[in-house]
Design goal:
Elements lengths: L1 H11 L4 E6 L2 H8 L9 H11 L4 E6 L6 H10 L14 H13 L1
Parallel strand pairs: 1-2
Helix pairs in contact: 1-3
Length: 106
């Protein structure tokens, strides 16, 4: 569902060039695959592919979870937050602290 939300959000913002990064290899492969998908989430995959037609240039790449710990931390946070948040120019202070702590430890 995260991939679907990312694509829909990009379409709503009328973004023309987008790189989607996902840590689930299967999700990336399924979206890239041009064959008709069958299965439990095939309707979601088809919706994603249809929505991607509204973006001029896009690509989706696999990024190991370990290389983007902040995104992983945000995903875990989303499990306990009831409201949906979209940060574009600003970001939650707790993420700033997390990123700064990772930079200091390097």
């Amino acid at each position: 569902m995260g991939a679907w939300q990312a694509v829909e959000f990009s379409v709503q913002l009328e973004l023309r060039k987008v790189v989607f990064k996902r840590d689930a290899v299967k999700v990336v492969q399924t979206i890239i695959n041009k064959e008709l998908q069958r299965g439990r989430y095939s309707h979601v995959v088809q919706d994603i592919k249809q929505s991607l037609k509204g973006i001029q240039a896009w690509r989706i790449v696999h990024t190991p979870r370990e290389t983007n710990e902040v995104a992983h931390w945000q995903a875990k946070l989303s499990l306990v937050v009831e409201q949906r948040y979209n940060w574009i120019e600003d970001y939650p202070h707790c993420i700033h602290d997390y990123v700064f702590a990772k930079q200091v430890s390097v």
